[in-house]
Structure formats: C-alpha cells, structure tokens
C-alpha cells in the first residue's frame, strides 16, 4: 500500500503487509459476518483447531487480541502520523484468516483519504475504527458468547495505549499523538456516555519483578485455555486465580 509504506520500517516493518488492497486475491471473510451468530460459530470452530479449549469466552477474547492488535497498529499509526483515515468499517473490511485461524491481513477497498479539516475530538478522528468496527463487534460478540464488553474494549484499548507510547519513543512529535492520548484519557465521550477505553492500563509499583508493572485493568481470561498462562500485564499477577499459571518471566521472581 504505497500511501502507508513510509510508516512501516524498522520495528514496524512487520505491519507493512497487514493492510492490503483489492488486488490481493486471497480468500477472505467479510468482517460484518463476525458479528453474527453463524459467523462467530464458524470463526471459533476454525480457531479451535489450533487453540484447543471449551471456553468460548476465552477463545474469543484471545482471538480478539490478535484482531485488535493487527488492526489498531497500522490504522491508528496512519491516522496520527499521516493524518489519513482508512476505510476499516465492518461493511468495507475483509479479513484474511491464516492457517492458525487468526487474522493474517485485512483487505480494504482503497488507501483512504487525508482529513479535510482537523477533527474536533479523538472520537471524531477515530470514528471509522471505533463506531463502525469496534462498537458493533463488541456488542455482537458480547451478545453471542456472554463475554464482558469491558474485557473486549480493554483488549483493544490496551494496544492503543501501548502504541501511543511506542510512537512517542520513536520520536513522533507530541502534538501528533495528542488525540491518541486523549482517546484513552477522556473519561467520557462528547455525548456524555462513559468512554469504554478510559485508562486501560495502570502502572503498579512492585517489590519483586518488573516495577512499575504495566498492568491491564481487565483480565483477558486467556488462562482458561489449555497451555496458556496469565499475560505478563495481567491484573491477577500477584493473586493468580485457581489453576492459573504465571508467565515464566515473572514466575522466577515471585
């Protein structure tokens, strides 16, 4: 995608091939289908071949983490750094699924467009991603498998918070990142509703292990799947649920 090529170099080179155009003819699934009962059932059935587990909530949460990470990083980077909005709403996005059942790439109809004027708020700036993609998916997924919306929103917002910090460390000017910060630091949306991505992580001083620990506010419950331990930034690190395993990097320190 020529318009985005300058972004994805160095540490971000991995994301160069995540967003593709219609000339990529690999089989894909319309993103809108994932919010339906049949579409979600097929998705989990396919994912379960590589990640066993009977807990559909944990399976979906773990799958959504890859979905959010791979979509958030190139989309928001293009938005903040290039001032470019990409067509990633559910009605225009198609998902190329890998052999492991996880999102491999996203096909969009075109390279998007620069903002004609400065967005009035971060919620306007990221409206295509938040309102036309995340919101209907979170609602649909929560309804189908009874997974907490807070968990799903935290799965998404976790990557946004990380991305803004990573871009700052790479030298992106602070003014370009302001809307990214405001998105996760605003307790309420402009319409008065609570912002579900408000402060998705906190930094906790600890006496052992890494300190401060970058800790999510909501557990993604991936530990309920066979072979998976708590995340390194899990809120349950110091008091693991029964049967949960600590990640090796932290287990040696506690």
UniProtKB/TrEMBL annotation:
Ferric siderophore reductase C-terminal domain: residues covered: 216-236
Pfam families found in the cross-reference section: FhuF, FhuF_C
Give me the segments passing through the membrane.
none
What this protein is called in its record is: Ferric iron reductase protein, putative
The protein's matches in InterPro entries, at most eight in alphabetical order, are given as: Fe_iron_reduct, FhuF_C, IucA/IucC-like_C
Record-annotated Aerobactin siderophore biosynthesis IucA/IucC-like C-terminal domain positions: 61-204
The GO molecular function terms of this record are: 2 iron, 2 sulfur cluster binding; catalytic activity
């Amino acid at each position: 995608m020529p318009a985005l090529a300058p972004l994805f170099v160095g540490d971000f080179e991995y994301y160069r091939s995540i967003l593709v155009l219609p000339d990529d003819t690999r089989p894909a699934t319309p993103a809108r289908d994932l919010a339906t009962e049949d579409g979600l059932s097929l998705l989990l059935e396919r994912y379960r071949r590589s990640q066993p587990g009977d807990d559909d909530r944990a399976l979906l949460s773990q799958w959504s983490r890859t979905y959010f990470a791979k979509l958030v990083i190139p989309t928001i980077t293009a938005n903040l750094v290039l001032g470019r909005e990409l067509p990633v709403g559910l009605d225009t996005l198609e998902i190329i699924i890998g052999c492991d059942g996880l999102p491999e790439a996203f096909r969009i109809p075109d390279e998007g467009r620069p903002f004609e004027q400065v967005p009035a708020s971060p919620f306007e700036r990221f409206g295509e991603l938040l309102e036309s993609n995340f919101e209907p998916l979170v609602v649909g997924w929560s309804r189908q498998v009874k997974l907490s919306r807070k968990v799903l929103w935290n799965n998404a917002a976790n990557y946004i918070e990380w991305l803004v910090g990573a871009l700052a460390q790479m030298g992106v000017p602070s003014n370009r990142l302001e809307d990214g910060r405001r998105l996760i630091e605003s307790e309420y949306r402009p319409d008065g509703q609570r912002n579900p991505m408000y402060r998705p992580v906190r930094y906790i001083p600890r006496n052992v292990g890494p300190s401060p620990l970058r800790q999510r506010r909501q557990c993604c419950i991936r530990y309920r799947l066979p072979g998976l331990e708590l995340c390194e930034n899990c809120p349950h690190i110091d008091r693991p649920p029964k049967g949960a395993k600590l990640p090796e990097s932290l287990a040696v320190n506690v």
